[in-house]
Specification:
By secondary structure, the chain is of the alpha+beta class. Helix content is 11%, strand content 24%. It has one helix spanning 5-12, and strands at residues 27-34, 42-50. Strands 1-2 form a two-stranded antiparallel sheet.
Length: 71
Amino acid sequence: MKKTVNQIKQEQGFDKKAPMCNNCKYFTYDEVRGTHFYDEYRVYQKNLRCAIGSFAVKSTNWCKLHERKQE
């Protein structure tokens, strides 16, 4: 019998919300409004930082101290 995509994802342990800085409770950033070609304005994230170590990060990075923020 042929497996469905969802069955294959489950077998592999696929998770859309994998641990990364942008879903960590220690992730901080500044919201900046900027103009965009199609919209009147767009909100951008700038100054992405880790609150634990106070260093710059990218939103898809992660570390061993990751704690998922409450949604």
